[in-house]
Every structure is written in structure tokens, then in C-alpha cells.
Write a structure and sequence with these properties.
Purple Acid Phosphatase, chain A, domain 2, 13 strands, 5-stranded mixed beta sheet, alpha/beta, 25% helix
């Protein structure tokens, strides 16, 4: 039994927005992803850190969710900035139930357990584009509250945090998020969001007692990372 993580699958099986147009590692990425995911067995658990599908609604994203459902084992997903299908976790879970998708759980204001490890997380936040300081602070505060709800739900177990947005990059740090992880004794944090040349800004390594790792699909060459 193993625990895997990967992020940013950017599936588009039910809509016309393939990632191959970005070239480089994204060429033939569905084939590469299929080969990489073949490592996962039925007894395993996989965390997928956001940006699952380009589908604009649950209906448009159904084929992509069925693809994720066919990955062996349990899948725990969280929201990314391009998950436009998202409205609420309860609506998504109801949709999954109606479509017979029973292997996907949503990490949102909660946590899940893998043996003695607590799987905690949220989307996170990093200011991008033309947003006001007020909006930036509002979104940061909201995501910090969501992460704290997840960490509280874990009790006294060892906690691993999974985010979509990077809490730390070269020249940038989401201080409230990192201070919260410090306070709850988090030692490992995995995040996605950064692709192609953007990966050069990723921080990977240890800072303030936390080891950070970028796990976007193209960064991992579409091979899920085994954590345990």
C-alpha cells in the first residue's frame, strides 16, 4: 500500500483544450500520463493537487473525472485555480455519486487518513495578475482558515500538507500559510501550479523546518511521486 501525489493533470477529454499546444514536455501528455499512472495499484491512495480538468462544468468534465476514477485505488482531489467546474464540494460529491464515481474524495475543510498520517490541504493562494491588496488579503485569509480547519481535523497525527498554489517560491512567501504549518508541526508540503519556465521559480527544499516539493505533472514527467 503506497501514497502517491501528482498535480495539474489538465485533462480535456470532454472539451477541446489539449495541453500539447504548449509543446515540450506536454507533447503526447495523455499517453505519458497513462504510462506514469500505471505505477499505481488498487490498494494505493493518490492525492491530486488541483487543476484536474479544463471542463467548465461538472457535466463537461465528466469524461475527465471518469478517467481519474479509472486510476486504481483511492483518489483525493483538491481545487486548483483552473478548476472552473467547481461550485461546492457537496455538489461535486453528489455528481460523482450519480455517475458511479465512488473512488474520489474531496479535500476541502477536512482531512483524510493514510495509516497514521493525516492528509491535509486546501487550494492556497498566491497573488497573480492585477488584483488589489484587499482582494489578495481576503483570499489569503480565507485559504489560511480552510487549511487550519483541515489541520485541526487531523488531531495529533503527523500531518502532510497538499496545496495547489506554491506557499513559497524564489523571492516570494505566503507567510501566514507557512506560519500556520509551523504552528501545527507540519514537516512536508507538496504543491503544484508551476509549469514550463515557471518551474524555475519553484522552491524545493527545506525552510523553517518544512520540506517543500513541486509536484505538477510536467515537472514530474507525468510520473506520480511516491511519498510513502
Amino acid at each position: 500500500m503506497s501514497l502517491f501525489v501528482i498535480g495539474d493533470l489538465h485533462l480535456s477529454l470532454g472539451c477541446d483544450k489539449p495541453m500539447d499546444v504548449f509543446g515540450g514536455r506536454w507533447e503526447n501528455y495523455i499517453q505519458k500520463l497513462g504510462e506514469g499512472l500505471s505505477l499505481i495499484k488498487e490498494e494505493d491512495t493518490t492525492v491530486i493537487c488541483g487543476d484536474l480538468t479544463w471542463g467548465m462544468s461538472l457535466e463537461e468534465a465528466e469524461e475527465d473525472f471518469q478517467y481519474i476514477h479509472r486510476i486504481p485505488g483511492k483518489k483525493i482531489i483538491l481545487k486548483g485555480n483552473h478548476d472552473y467546474w467547481w461550485s461546492t464540494a457537496s455538489k461535486a460529491m453528489k455528481f460523482f455519486e450519480e455517475k458511479g464515481i465512488d473512488s474520489i474524495e474531496i479535500l476541502n475543510n477536512n482531512c483524510f487518513f493514510y495509516e497514521d498520517i493525516a492528509i491535509c490541504g486546501t487550494r492556497g493562494w498566491a497573488a497573480e495578475g492585477n488584483v488589489s491588496r484587499e482582494h489578495d488579503k481576503k483570499m489569503t485569509d480565507r485559504e489560511v482558515l480552510r487549511l487550519e480547519a483541515s489541520l485541526k481535523a487531523a488531531g495529533d497525527r503527523e500531518k502532510i500538507v497538499f496545496l495547489h498554489y506554491p506557499p513559497k517560491m524564489l523571492g516570494y512567501e505566503c507567510t501566514p500559510m507557512i506560519e500556520l504549518m509551523e504552528r501545527y508541526g507540519v514537516k512536508k508540503c507538496f504543491y503544484g501550479h508551476l509549469h514550463s519556465a515557471g518551474r524555475n521559480a519553484a522552491f524545493e527544499g527545506e525552510s523553517r523546518g518544512i520540506r517543500f516539493r513541486l509536484i505538477s505533472a510536467d515537472h514530474l514527467l507525468f510520473i506520480p511521486l511516491k511519498i510513502m
